[in-house]
Specification:
Length: 206
């Protein structure tokens, strides 16, 4: 591997760590939720998201100048975009709690956030393996595990919405929480897309 190639893999690993940091902070916010502190939570979350944006911009700049890349530059750009999107979606979940002035958090939301953490932990493992994707014996199992967590999120999404519409009588509350669960589901999909991106790159380059 060329010396300059290490930048790409280090950038991906750092981006994955920031996504995990955002996910862990989301769990912390929801487990200790106080509606009067939501703006402070959002500020801290945005700092994490901004750091992820910086990594994305660094990748964009490197790809614009690079003559040779370890895999197709389009694939590197796709993966960078998909990693950044995970952190964006995590921030968006917390933003929804602010927008809809949510006063309390139910256990399903916390369970969902913990599954996002699990997905981000798998993404971190994937990014640490990616540099050696041609020889790695772990990547395929990590991609499958990421898909499995997304399926768990699908199930949680359905059961959470059913419980919400079955037990909640406040229409505004139903609409607000539905939007929040939609956002959780979109975040789980974004995590899975990272795994799909890795699978695509491996298929093209092995």
């Amino acid at each position: 591997m060329a010396k300059g190639d290490k930048f790409y893999f280090e950038n991906f690993a750092a981006s994955a760590e920031l996504a995990k940091k955002a996910a862990l902070y989301l769990v912390e916010c929801l487990e200790n939720y106080k509606s009067e502190e939501i703006e402070t939570m959002l500020k801290k979350m945005h700092e994490i998201e901004h750091s992820a944006d910086v990594k994305k911009h660094e990748m964009d700049k490197a790809l614009a100048k690079a003559f040779v890349t370890p895999v197709d530059r389009e694939d590197l750009d796709m993966l960078s975009h998909n990693l950044d999107k995970v952190t964006d979606k995590i921030e968006e979940i917390l933003q929804k709690f602010y927008i809809y002035n949510v006063q309390s958090v139910d256990s399903s939301a916390i369970d969902f956030a913990k599954k996002i953490v699990k997905s981000c932990e798998l993404i971190c493992e994937l990014m640490n393996e990616f540099e050696n994707f041609k020889r790695s014996k772990k990547i395929q199992s990590l991609v499958i595990a990421l898909n499995d967590v997304e399926e768990e999120c699908d199930t949680l999404y359905l059961t959470s919405l059913r419980a919400l519409t079955k037990n909640q009588t406040d229409v505004l509350e139903v609409v607000s929480l539905t939007k929040i669960y939609d956002c959780f589901e979109a975040c789980a999909d974004a995590c899975e897309h990272v795994g799909d991106s890795i699978g695509s790159v491996i298929m093209k380059n092995t």
